[in-house]
Amino acid sequence: MTASGLRTETSDGVLRVTIDRPARLNALDEVTCAALTDAFESAEDIHVVVLTGSGGSFSAGADVIDMATNSLSDGTEAQQAAEHTMRRANALIRAIISCPVPVIAQVNGPAVGIGASMALASDLIYASEEAYFLLAFTKIGLMPDGASSLLVPAAVGRARANAMMMLAERMSAQDAFATGLINGVFPAAELSARVDTAVRRLSRAPKRALELTKRALTASTLSLLDDALERESEGQIELLTSPAFNERVMAIASPPKGT
After folding, report:
1. CB contact at 8 A, 126 and 106
2. Three-state DSSP class for 1?
């Protein structure tokens, strides 16, 4: 099935969800974000979900063009738009984390911003050698969201997390594997086959056992999820309505002539 910006395919109990906006490096606009959330929330008779992107990118994060188009000058409208943006982003991350069956992120290329958060919210994360993870929120006057302020330091430690989030340092797939952020890194030509191997192993396990295992792991490792999302939302809403963000996002969306 194809929705705007999204392709889904179900076969033998496996739901494959592909972000399909290659011209925008699979950046998420509002329609695609909503379709992704619906795909995770409405999945039925599924044993495993595989999330990936089309072309050479996993996801470039939020669509800056979409954000610039929706940038509003009126204070009340800007506040309402920011609140809506954060509700939408949090709903997507919650849908991935609360999906009752295992979610595998097949990170076929760059995972940036909320794109990185989506990957890290998944239960198993396999990346190609060309992939990397980048939380460049501060470069446009924002802060990390999508529960990344919880997910990243829990995996790589405070020092590496600070470098990724404050300095916007890119983490290669190789480093992400070495630090425990992801489960494996493979040549691009082998990634799909390696993911399919994990899918087959999960498909052989009783579904209820996987559901209860995921529930227990989520409860024990992400007990602070609500707190993290609330802090991120409060801070991000303030930043989304700030002049600094508006100036930077408009500069990105409307580069000077000749560039």
Report:
1. yes
2. coil
